[in-house]
């Protein structure tokens, strides 16, 4: 009905006489509603809506007539008398458009307060027709967007304790159409925002709490379905996971807009979703539980998405607390199951439609309203179970016991936490996916801001013998991961190292002799492996050319690496050698990638090793740096200005380049300079205003540069530059031509680059070999001391 925008065309298009005529014709056509009149009726309904909107914005006489003739009521009666879908949809749509476009507050309040609105909400539509569902939900959404603190009483019948709009909307929470589900969530959130004490009370008790329970059960089945489809490879993993994340955002908004219901929603999600599907998967791996991989992935998402709520705290406690109350263990192992009123497949009719008097009676109790309903055992049992599970009637619920764990009052009888035990056992698996997901979860928990939670889970300072023993056991298991052959993906190794370093830096942890022995075993194993590799010519060149890049990424910057695999974590794609997937997340292909991966693992283990022995005071010198000399030009960046080092030689030249043009900065003066440097190939231009400063046009490592004097022009130097990458299988190159003023400059530049390449290659090789020799010596000395101790005993 874009015609509603015609008001800008002038009042001649809309007159009161025309408005009255359209209405009278509508009454005439609706006397007999049949195939002949239905199209005419729909046209007149549309015109009346259009004229009403124009009148609301331009001429009050139009809405005066709307009031006097009670047109809203007439439209409803036509709809009730009609069996034609077109007429029903047309009238629903007209009311939705009116509500969306009216601007006069008096007119809006008149329409909202009209009894017709409640009748439209509660009318017995044919909801098997998807088109009717779409227009009906659109009407509810238009209404919800108009509700605020001033008019909410028009929709919430406190005398009867009913909120028809909200109650009807929640019946579509699990509709098969995503647009309908999204609209329903918008309606619910819009109403929850309203600050009204009576409404807030209604939202925290039966019957509305049925929505939380049903939605939690629905969420469990959505997860189970997604789990099955993802593991079978029958669905786009990213698309499926995005849908699940959207649900997290919806729940997050509920927590934000209506904190009064947070404890109820926590209990509902824990009891009907998380415990049976997720924690049950760790405990039992039954049919109605998630796979362990999917469980770990979703748990990580939950903790990260709800890090400002109590839900994350409670999930972490249930997962990692060493012991739980016996009553809580019973609730975990013997879940109450879903209520009989819940249906996974959408149906507008449900169990409670047969017991409306019970619903009203229960709601009335909130506001001390006397009402009567026949006692029905099935209803009473259902209500009692739900109220108990959500913590409304007593303290025998999950959230209560989690709070008691935080209080640590020591009055409850405790049992070992089987969930934590099972998770720690999974640290011994050789399943790369499973280990990555578990380590990613542990890392998220370690980064959690609530220190009291981490203290209970033994993830804080090791200030007791129990915590020290537990910590040693975890580190020992993590060190074993390095000995898995073939080695796991780099993303898994990165997380392993980060967690070990976190525990070591957390406090002055005293490692047991068994853990120290395992550390030396791992380091010795890695050194031997690297020694064998570097002696092979096919690997030696790659290691020498890549060691600096790999060292900086996986040793110097290990702490800031964030291997978030997300959707690939449990997808078959990780078993495919896809060059588009970063080497961090897949197994290597070809000699270069094998060498890069093993070198990265060596540098990470090297860092872990010296972090630990430094803590243990075994080696006071700490980690020996691989890079002994720091060249200030190493940190220069293309496009930035720097002061050239004293005594450096600059040779004037002109430059042109082919391919990867984004790597080259244009020379604005037309004249550039090649700067002599022992490690880097640098092209610059001096700044016109400040000649002592240089603007970097190109910067690359000399080891990645090959040069040749042009046969036709001896002053021209053809430069081929390899674009360094620690991940790409295919090499990328850039061709640059330097034209010097004199051929001797070209020859001098070529000689410097060739000589430096040879020198740096020998130097790099020597640094790596020295590092391996030093490491091997440290290990052999330690093993020798251990043997001497055993002999002396």
From TrEMBL:
The keyword Transmembrane does not apply. It comes from the Eukaryota. GO terms for cellular component: Golgi apparatus; late endosome. GO terms for biological process: autophagy; endosomal transport; regulation of autophagosome maturation; vacuolar transport. Keywords: Autophagy. It holds the Pfam family FPL. Residues 47-192 form the FPL domain. This is FPL domain-containing protein. It comes from Paramecium pentaurelia.
């Amino acid at each position: 009905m874009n015609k509603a925008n015609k008001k800008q065309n002038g009042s001649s298009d809309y007159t009161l006489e025309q408005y009255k005529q359209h209405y009278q014709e509508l009454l005439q056509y609706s006397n007999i509603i049949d195939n002949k009149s239905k199209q005419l009726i729909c046209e007149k309904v549309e015109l009346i809506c259009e004229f009403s909107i124009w009148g609301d914005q331009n001429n009050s006489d139009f809405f005066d007539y709307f009031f006097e003739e009670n047109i809203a009521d007439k439209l409803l009666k036509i709809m009730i008398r009609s069996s034609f879908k077109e007429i029903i949809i047309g009238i629903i749509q007209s009311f939705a458009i009116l509500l969306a476009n009216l601007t006069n507050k008096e007119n809006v309040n008149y329409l909202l307060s009209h009894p017709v609105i409640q009748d439209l909400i509660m009318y017995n539509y044919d909801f098997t027709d998807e088109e009717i569902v779409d227009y009906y939900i659109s009407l509810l959404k238009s209404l919800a967007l108009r509700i605020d603190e001033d008019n909410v009483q028009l929709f919430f019948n406190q005398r009867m304790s009913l909120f028809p709009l909200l109650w009807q909307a929640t019946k579509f929470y699990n509709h098969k159409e995503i647009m309908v589900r999204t609209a329903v969530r918008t309606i619910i959130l819009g109403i929850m925002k309203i600050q009204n004490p009576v409404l807030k009370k209604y939202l925290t008790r039966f019957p509305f709490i049925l929505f939380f329970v049903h939605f939690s059960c629905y969420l469990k089945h959505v997860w189970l379905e997604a789990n099955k489809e993802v593991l079978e490879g029958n669905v786009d993993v990213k698309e499926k996971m995005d849908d699940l994340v959207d649900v997290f955002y919806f729940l997050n908004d509920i927590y934000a807009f209506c904190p009064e219901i947070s404890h109820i929603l926590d209990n509902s999600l824990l009891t009907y979703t998380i415990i049976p599907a997720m924690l049950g998967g760790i405990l039992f791996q039954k049919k109605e539980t998630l796979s362990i991989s999917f469980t770990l992935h979703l748990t990580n998402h939950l903790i990260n998405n709800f890090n400002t709520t109590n839900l994350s705290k409670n999930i972490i406690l249930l997962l990692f607390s060493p012991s739980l109350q016996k009553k809580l263990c019973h609730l975990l192992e013997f879940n109450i199951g879903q209520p009989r009123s819940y249906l996974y497949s959408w149906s507008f009719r449900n169990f409670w439609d047969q017991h409306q008097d019970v619903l009203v009676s229960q709601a009335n109790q909130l506001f001390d309203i006397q009402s009567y309903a026949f006692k029905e055992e099935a209803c009473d049992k259902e209500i009692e179970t739900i109220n108990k599970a959500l913590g409304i009637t007593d303290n025998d619920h999950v959230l209560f016991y989690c709070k008691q764990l935080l209080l640590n009052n020591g009055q409850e009888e405790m049992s070992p936490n089987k969930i934590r035990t099972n998770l720690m056992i999974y640290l011994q698996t050789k399943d790369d996916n499973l280990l990555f997901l578990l380590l990613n979860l542990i890392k998220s928990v370690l980064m959690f801001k609530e220190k009291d939670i981490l203290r209970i889970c033994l993830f804080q300072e090791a200030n007791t013998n129990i915590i020290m023993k537990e910590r040693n056991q975890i580190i020992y298991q993590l060190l074993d991961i390095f000995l898995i052959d073939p080695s796991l993906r780099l993303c898994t190794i990165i997380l392993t190292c980060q967690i070990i370093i976190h525990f070591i830096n957390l406090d002055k942890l005293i490692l047991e002799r068994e853990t120290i022995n395992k550390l030396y075993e791992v380091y010795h194993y890695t050194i031997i492996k690297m020694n064998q590799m570097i002696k092979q010519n096919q690997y030696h060149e790659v290691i020498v050319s890549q060691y600096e890049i790999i060292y900086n990424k996986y040793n110097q910057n290990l702490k800031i690496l964030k291997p978030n695999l997300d959707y690939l974590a449990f997808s078959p794609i990780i078993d495919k050698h896809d060059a588009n997937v970063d080497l961090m997340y897949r197994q290597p292909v070809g000699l270069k990638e094998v060498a890069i991966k093993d070198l990265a693992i060596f540098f990470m283990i090297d860092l872990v090793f010296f972090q630990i022995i430094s803590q243990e005071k075994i080696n006071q010198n700490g980690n020996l740096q691989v890079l002994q000399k720091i060249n200030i030009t190493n940190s220069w960046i293309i496009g930035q200005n720097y002061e050239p080092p004293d005594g450096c030689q600059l040779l004037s030249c002109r430059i042109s380049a082919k391919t990867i043009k984004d790597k080259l900065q244009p020379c604005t003066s037309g004249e550039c300079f090649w700067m002599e440097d022992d490690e880097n190939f640098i092209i610059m231009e001096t700044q016109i205003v400040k000649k002592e400063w240089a603007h970097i046009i190109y910067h690359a490592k000399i080891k990645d540069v090959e040069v040749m004097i042009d046969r036709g022009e001896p002053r021209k130097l053809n430069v081929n530059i390899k674009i360094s990458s620690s991940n790409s299988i295919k090499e990328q190159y850039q061709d640059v031509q330097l034209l010097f003023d004199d051929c001797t400059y070209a020859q001098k530049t070529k000689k410097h680059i060739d000589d430096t390449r040879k020198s740096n290659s020998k130097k790099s090789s020597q640094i790596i070999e020295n590092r391996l020799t030093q490491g091997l010596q440290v290990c052999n000395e330690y093993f020798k001391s251990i043997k001497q101790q055993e002999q002396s005993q």
